[in-house]
């Protein structure tokens, strides 16, 4: 049954707009939630499968957003000694690709830099990195417009030679674009986890010294994971920039990283389904709370829900529910021992 | 030159409160292995308690400070008993996220109760500054520096000169062995968290009258506390104290001579530089926790 | 699992589909009620409520009552855009007011284009808002260029020779430094340092130490009230005694006097409303009624310098709906151009601004220079 679950969820999500009709507000909430969920999936690759908690993940998301926006808007900056770099606007789809590449590259740099440390140090280095990137975006006004924000970012245009072009302006188009990119990211993570590389990652998470003794190159494995994770976050950032059509340095806010971490951990880190379920719940929770209570109270409930989930299901909702189901079926059929198959 | 002297005087004043902020955080991490994301919220609570004591109870500032510190102590103990004790043995990520959740609740709670308009705590000190050569400094801030240094001194004495401190150091070294030797580790953890929280509340209570009291005030303070702690080496109390002064110096000189826009980036740039050069903090070799 | 998901969706749908009722005219209000600008956004909303109640007490507009649909944008641009979407599509409001900060308003603006719904901008100061070719934007607050232009005649009277800037690191602050700097240069005034401070920064002593060492006679400061209180306290602690003029209209002098005490003495402020001297405002009777109602509701007097914009904003919208003759977006957009009445800070009528063919509306409010003297607000004689 659990094998069919992703397909069922995908089908449900694909059919959702039909059920919703054309309620743009809910579609908008779903699109933004979808983009954050892609961010959460990318974070899960690091946090869930290698055990490294990056609290600077928003940096890759923001770098993706800015690279993509600047590629499609063009810029003209002085880089010192009187030299200027002038860039004419390119199509947004190229921006998307460059965003993935640039975020991946910064993932490589940060990986090389910060995998020298582990645990709480790693957490704090990644926070610092994100803050520095935010402050650069805020202060390098000539390139990023600083706090004045980059506005009028074009929507993504998809084109096939000979078949004409297609500009994704409507909510529905963006919804399916996000769903498509999300599915792609899912497939990347799923195939990685199932591969030899995935076993190396999990080996490092379970027991680093043992993994090292069997010849796994820790820094290399972690760096590759960081590159892929950052590239996916960059893709999410690009989608965000072209959907919202305005970005300012607030895309680097620490609270967005916290939201993504909450999605991963509450959903179930180290599971494929966890970030998606966590993303949907915590992405849509504010939407559900908005009409029923005062704004400050909404935040309090958000915090309390997080605490309660961690207390009731410390490993997250997906593993928690799976264990619950397994226990139930074990009780129904007492002869059946709780074997690993059932757990899965 | 005159500007430089003023920057150095500012560093001293600012560094004292930064050190106070860092010590509470590093203590909790060192002994309990918990990254305390309620630190900023407790700082805010401390400031509001001072405001309440002065505005509602009519106490003067010197009496309001102990009230705020006591409040921080009790709230910290409550958080530890309700949220952290049941999670003992869970991994560091889980406790960190629970702390993030508690931080959100505390911060939104202050906004809900007190509203978003900043409050001012009146100061009993004269408005005219003290003139030291070309530099000037306010009496209130001198008092804050003195009180911060006093609290740091008391923390040191508690860790190094008391039985509780001995037990804390034992728990830091090896909690299992400490438990076998009759140390009640549960009590030690509650005491540690309460103490760290009281220090955060004290920092807020001291800085409330210097700045204004606002529900968002803890956010920036928390990020700075992280920078200070990592600078000094996680769990290293002496390191945090020195880290506070280093951060203050970097911010003053950075804003004064490089660019004020990057003032708040200084702390983070230092962290990255330190970790490139010495990944476990500047003072990792020094004796930890006292 | 899919079962759980459809349950969530069902709840969401049930909560979101609260259609418009026919007997009221809904106005969407998109303001920061939590986050960094919570205090200011709440003031604006309270002012807006007074206006709506007042209009409804007189029988409403077109025979229908006004109903404000207030939503919190959490001081966050993404949320501001989402909120606009909700107000337009789900609550079916034909006109909006918002969104306080410039980055919040800029984030909402593409939505106005998408749905062709007009918005009255009550607070934002960025020049971009009315120059980017969005014909659905009507602004009653002055952009900093307009504020600088109004201030220009006072420059020589004040005897300014060299000016330093200390501004917030956002569009509000940096925009003010650029626009005032340009105006001052034209007036032959030298520009010295431009120092930046982060929003939410509490200790500016490093920047102030630098300003203390400069040879300028005036410091122009652009920030909101909480930071100004801190600045004045820290300036006095550093013994920094220069002429200070603040800009931006979010200064709230009463809060400054109450919280900064004598440290604020002698500071000057450019403001768009004179609640301390109602007799000097363009419509003294309206000012007095508004302030009386504000106090009656138990709000702090200090809030009126912020909340009057919400009050005037809703009144302007009501005028537009009245002129449109029906509560529909296209008719209201068109009717905004013929709004003409005296607001609390001068005439509200919209002039065209921005690229031809798709101009935004910009009203030109009065700008006043006030001084804090012995804990009171006075108008300096120049």
TrEMBL record, chain A:
Alphabetized UniProt keyword annotations: Cell membrane, Membrane, Transmembrane, Transmembrane helix
Top-level lineage group: Bacteria
UniProt topology in membrane: Multi-pass membrane protein
Which regions span the lipid bilayer?
Answer: 31-51, 58-77, 89-109, 121-141, 175-197, 218-240, 246-265, 272-293, 299-326
For this UniProt entry, what is the primary localization, expressed as one broad class? membrane
Q: Do you know which CDD domains this protein is assigned to?
A: TM_PBP1_LivM_like (cd06581)
Q: Gene Ontology cellular component?
A: plasma membrane
Transmembrane helix as a keyword of this entry, yes or no, is yes
An example of a GO molecular function for this protein is: branched-chain amino acid transmembrane transporter activity
Cellular compartment(s):
Cell membrane
Keyword Coiled coil carried by entry: no
Task: Please report the name of this protein according to its UniProt entry.
Answer: ABC transporter permease
UniProtKB/TrEMBL annotation, chain B:
Where does the UniProt entry say this protein principally localizes? Answer: membrane
GO terms for cellular component: plasma membrane
Cell membrane: present as a keyword of the record? yes
Q: Which Pfam families match?
A: BPD_transp_2 (PF02653)
Keywords tagged on the record: Amino-acid transport, Cell membrane, Membrane, Transmembrane, Transmembrane helix, Transport
How does the protein's chain sit in the membrane according to the entry? Multi-pass membrane protein
Which chain regions cross the lipid bilayer? 12-34, 41-59, 65-84, 96-118, 138-159, 187-213, 225-249, 261-277
Keyword Membrane part of the UniProt annotation: yes
- Tell me the compartments it is located in: Cell membrane
Instruction: Write out the GO biological process terms.
Output: amino acid transport
Question: Which Gene Ontology terms cover its molecular function?
Answer: transmembrane transporter activity
InterPro entries documented for this protein:
ABC_transp_permease, BCAA_transport_permease
Q: Which family does it belong to?
A: Belongs to the binding-protein-dependent transport system permease family. LivHM subfamily.
Q: What is this protein called?
A: ABC transporter permease
Automatic annotation (TrEMBL), chain C:
Q: Which residues cross the membrane?
A: none
Q: Which CDD domains match?
A: PBP1_ABC_ligand_binding-like
Report the leader peptide range.
1-22
Query: What GO biological process terms does the UniProt entry carry, in alphabetical order?
Result: amino acid transport
InterPro entries, sorted: BCAA_transport, Leu-bd, Leu_Ile_Val-bd, Peripla_BP_I
- Residues in domain Leucine-binding protein? 24-374
The question of whether Transport is a record keyword is answered with yes
One Pfam family it belongs to: Peripla_BP_6
Sorted keywords for this record are: Amino-acid transport, Signal, Transport
Instruction: Spell out the PANTHER family in the cross-references.
Output: LEUCINE-SPECIFIC-BINDING PROTEIN, PERIPLASMIC BINDING PROTEIN OF ABC TRANSPORTER FOR NATURAL AMINO ACIDS
Family membership, please give it.
Belongs to the leucine-binding protein family.
What protein name does the entry list? ABC transporter substrate-binding protein
Q: What lineage is on file? A: Bacteria, Pseudomonadati, Pseudomonadota, Alphaproteobacteria, Hyphomicrobiales
